[in-house]
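Sequence design from tokenized structure. All designs in this work follow the same two-part layout: the structure record, then the generated sequence. An example of the structure record is given first.
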């Protein structure tokens, strides 16, 4: 039974089929946002959700059986644990006080694309690895925000109280500036008070947007290279003794079979 499950799980069409069902599940969830479609085809959508949930349960059972009795190989993998948790949450009844939670659990199924597609797993691993380094950049950006917010309050709160009346409001205004959302309107309003106000805004845009964001990008790219290097090292690990013996036995059987065929042909 375990060998059958291993063959199914390792089959080249297994992952593409699961990806197809995840995409179908996402499509159904999107269609459920249309009141007209729910009215006309609501029951079909319910059956579709139940069918896809059944597929995901079977997938989990196959993967767990394939590694039995060494269940740690399945539950010790973070991505498998992520998939299993989503399947368990999807079993919450979609009625009563848990209805909203059940809908959110169904929505989480779409996230399974991350665990199924290796390239997406690589990106998520890179982002997770970048978080510690990003903390220092966020600290630097917070200092810049704080300094500019205090300066902006003292410079503009009398002329433009709508955006600079308090420290909190000033920081919110700077967040608008760093996203480049109509920041020139704020600058021109400040320039009505002083023609040199542009220095404040341009310097903050250069520091906050171009320098800091590029630092974020540099950290992510650096960690992406490191993750790729580690992945290549894992793939380049030497073949284990048991695997070599298995390959040799298969080669011997193939040679013996070929020898017998040659003898019969003679």
């Amino acid at each position: 039974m375990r060998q059958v499950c291993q063959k199914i799980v390792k089959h080249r069409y297994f992952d593409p089929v699961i990806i197809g069902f995840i995409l179908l599940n996402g499509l159904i969830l999107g269609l459920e946002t249309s009141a007209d479609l729910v009215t006309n085809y609501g029951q079909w959508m319910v059956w579709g959700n139940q069918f896809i949930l059944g597929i995901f349960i079977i997938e989990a059972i196959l993967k767990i059986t394939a590694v039995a009795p060494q269940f740690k190989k399945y539950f010790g993998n973070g991505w498998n644990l992520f998939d299993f948790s989503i399947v368990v949450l999807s079993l919450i009844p979609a009625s009563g006080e848990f209805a909203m939670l059940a809908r959110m659990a169904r929505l989480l199924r779409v996230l399974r694309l991350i665990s199924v597609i290796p390239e997406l797993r690589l990106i998520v691993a890179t982002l997770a690895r970048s978080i510690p380094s990003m903390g220092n950049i966020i600290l630097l950006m917070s200092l810049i925000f704080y300094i500019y917010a205090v300066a902006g309050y003292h410079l503009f709160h009398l002329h433009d109280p709508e955006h600079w009346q308090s420290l909190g409001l000033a920081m919110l205004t700077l967040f608008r500036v760093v996203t480049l959302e109509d920041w020139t309107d704020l600058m021109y309003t400040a320039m009505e008070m002083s023609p040199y106000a542009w220095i404040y805004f341009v310097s903050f845009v250069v520091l906050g947007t171009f320098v800091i964001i590029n630092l974020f990008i540099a950290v992510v790219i650096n960690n992406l290279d490191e993750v790729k290097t580690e992945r290549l090292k894992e793939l380049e690990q030497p073949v284990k003794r048991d695997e070599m013996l298995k390959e040799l036995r298969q080669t011997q059987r193939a040679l013996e079979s070929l020898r017998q065929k040659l003898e019969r042909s003679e």
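The chain has a mean pLDDT of 81. We note this feature because it recurs in several other targets discussed in the main text.
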